[in-house]
Design a protein that fits this description.
mainly alpha
């Protein structure tokens, strides 16, 4: 039954994607600011291929910001027709789902092993039987379903958003880390950092995970991870130089992410601030916003060092919130990881608020964009209001999940029911 459910999910999601590709939906979806940004635009990528075939450097101007690896790949694929290109995007989504399913199975097994070990050491309080992790055979199907049937991921796939390569390398990195293959984990980390820069923060939870790998020697695992990441990063940069023949791609790929020169509206927060800002404040606020995107990973690593997979979820959520050029597809990755902690869902309190904000922003956002750009009866403030609503939903979800996880850990340690010394119920607060 579980096998059938998983394959039904894959079949339905595959049918939806192929149908949209057959209808040539990428023609208009690739122009949607919810799906496309200057970093992963399908239109810009085709222009870059045309410039390269004409003997010009695609990184000379301000058009192409994709990696030279992606540019070279599509230079080979574009002559094969749009169906071949579309099927490649579908294949990448299926590979992402496969990596997510395998990672979920390994994480669930690790959680059960940790639970058995702590039960033997009597580390849990009394009355925690309802909180214990049971065998969940539906977990892989649930993870796959949340990713493949998510409207956001379907739209990004049909819109030919090249961020799928970054997502594939991220989930591959997670899968390899759970398997303890630190050489391939370093390869995946260097690739996703090359494509999107922000995933370099994953080095912290991966290092923690390698340190906890006591069976094979934690220090050697960390050395393998670091050495593999450095060597693969050097190899990728040298390969990009070999493809382009110059170092101009560094500023076009990494410099644009850091300095945010393109103010094209998106579902993030950067564009609105810099549109209305005086030039002499620009450098200061770029530093503030970029530091804000990275700095949270350090205290999160300290707090969740005992649970590196949950740390990965929180860091991916922070990247989705604070990266300079996000799309709706970025939200699907941490959302797909959530079922791994389904045993904490009983503590969630803001599910209705999150769902309402997501629905409102998903429906009203495109409407307000049309009124602003096409009819001129609205302005940027209206659309940015929906962008804030979308990001508020992510913030509420992240805080709610973190609070639920910490409450679950507290109840496991102190037991149920939750009472003080006088026998009165205890109300926990996240501080």
């Amino acid at each position: 039954l579980v096998f059938m459910k998983k394959h039904v999910v894959v079949a339905v999601s595959l049918l939806l994607r192929v149908l949209l590709i057959t209808l040539r939906s990428e023609v208009w979806l690739s122009e949607r600011i919810e799906v496309s940004t200057p970093l992963n635009s399908w239109t810009r990528l085709k222009e870059g291929v045309a410039l390269k075939e004409a003997g010009l450097s695609p990184y000379e101007g301000d058009i192409v910001h994709d990696s030279p690896l992606v540019l070279q790949l599509y230079q080979w694929l574009l002559p094969l027709g749009h169906m071949t290109v579309g099927l490649l995007f579908v294949l990448i989504d299926l590979l992402i789902a496969l990596c997510l399913a395998n990672a979920a199975v390994l994480h669930h097994h690790n959680d059960q092993e940790i639970q058995k070990a702590e039960l033997k050491k009597y580390k849990y309080g009394k009355g925690v039987e309802p909180l214990l992790i049971d065998q969940n055979e539906l977990l892989p199907s649930l993870v796959v379903g949340i990713y493949l049937l998510n409207p956001y991921s379907i739209l990004c796939c049909a819109g030919y958003s090249t961020q799928c390569f970054s997502h594939l390398s991220i989930v591959f990195t997670i899968w390899m880390s759970l398997r303890g293959n630190w050489v391939l984990c370093g390869m995946g980390l260097s690739l996703c950092s090359h494509l999107s820069l922000y995933p370099i923060m994953l080095i912290l939870p991966l290092t923690v995970m390698a340190c906890n790998n006591n069976k094979k020697g934690g220090i050697f695992s960390v050395l393998f991870l670091m050495l593999s990441t450095v060597l693969w990063s050097i190899f990728i940069v040298v390969l990009c130089y070999y493809i382009t023949g110059s170092w101009k791609f560094i500023n076009a790929v990494y410099g644009v992410i850091i300095t945010v020169p393109d103010f094209t509206p998106n579902v993030g927060l950067f564009w609105y601030f810099f549109t209305d800002m005086f030039d002499h404040f620009r450098l200061f606020f770029i530093c503030v916003l970029q530091i804000n995107a990275f700095i949270h990973s350090v205290p999160l690593t300290i707090r969740f060092s005992h649970s590196p997979m949950f740390l990965i979820y929180t860091i991916l959520s922070m990247i989705t919130l604070f990266k300079s050029y996000p799309t709706i597809g970025d939200f699907t990755l941490p959302l797909s990881l959530l079922p791994m902690w389904s045993y904490t869902f009983r503590y969630l309190r803001f599910s209705l608020v999150v769902l309402g904000c997501i629905l409102v922003s998903s429906i009203a956002g495109p409407i307000l964009w049309f009124l602003w750009i096409h009819t001129g009866s609205a302005n940027a403030n209206f659309f940015f209001g929906m962008t804030i609503t979308y990001n508020i939903a992510q913030i509420f979800l992240l805080l709610d999940v973190v609070n639920s996880y910490l409450t679950y850990q507290y109840d496991l340690k102190h037991g149920l029911p939750r009472l003080d010394k006088q026998g009165k119920p205890v109300l926990l607060r996240l501080q």
